[in-house]
Specification:
Elements lengths: L3 H26 L6 E4 L8 E4 H6 L4 H4 L19 H5 L20 H4 L4
Antiparallel strand pairs: 1-2
Bound molecules: heme C (3 copies).
One heme C binds next to strand 2, helix 2, helix 3 and helix 5.
């Protein structure tokens, strides 16, 4: 028989061991998101703000966008001017979701995306 006190000590040490083991994995899984990203190639219109915060709050997962829709580097997806209202309306980039089904449509609501900095 082990005494209750030794049992408790062993239990506490085991728990600490588990925490010390798990912590690095927890820290790794909480990857930094990309914060606020401005798209400024908008002609006479106000620039476009993309907020990682607001998209996370409505339940989007990193993998919903990365890397199949957007690369994880600001400015890289738009190389060759790929992102225009035409490609968005065809259902690419932001238009994958902003099609009136998953989120408000790119065919209206201009001022929800084009905002003053
Ligand atoms: C879901 C967000 C969103 C909505 C809604 C939206 N836009 Fe855009 N718009 C963008 C993004 C992103 C770009 C690309 C900017 C860049 O490449 O830097 C863009 C680019 C543009 C451009 C420059 C490129 C081009 O296609 O000529 C114009 C002009 C424009 N938008 C006008 C509009 C108008 C007018 C509306 C409303 C009918 C609108 N946008 C609605 C996100 C949006
Ligand atoms: C709704 C779509 C969407 C979701 C969800 C999303 N991202 Fe992004 N992310 C973007 C866009 C758009 C960009 C800019 C890409 C570009 O400009 O080419 C970006 C860029 C980034 C960048 C680069 C930032 C920089 O300054 O270069 C990182 C890092 C990133 N995202 C991480 C994440 C992580 C981690 C998550 C999940 C917690 C996440 N993203 C979820 C759309 C998204
Ligand atoms: C994976 C799906 C997805 C993609 C891709 C996506 N969004 Fe969204 N977005 C959502 C959802 C869902 C909402 C919340 C529902 C709504 O507002 O209709 C939202 C809300 C928003 C809002 C309102 C909240 C806010 O930030 O003020 C803006 C603006 C916006 N998105 C801009 C963009 C722009 C710009 C892009 C492309 C760079 C983009 N979104 C790409 C799903 C997406």
């Amino acid at each position: 028989m082990i005494s209750p006190r030794i049992y408790l000590i062993v239990k506490a040490l085991t728990l600490l061991g588990v925490l010390a083991f798990a912590f690095p994995f927890w820290a790794l899984s909480a990857e930094q998101d990309g914060g606020d990203i401005w798209f400024k190639d908008t002609k006479k219109f106000a620039p476009v703000l993309f907020s990682h915060d607001k998209h996370s709050q409505v339940g989007n997962q990193c993998t919903d966008c990365h890397d199949k829709i957007f690369k994880k580097q600001a400015g890289s997806t738009d190389s060759g001017n790929a992102i225009t209202m035409e490609t968005l309306q065809e259902g690419q980039y932001c238009g994958t979701c902003h099609n009136k089904e998953k989120a408000f449509s790119v065919k209206g609501s201009c001022k929800k995306c084009h905002v003053k900095p």
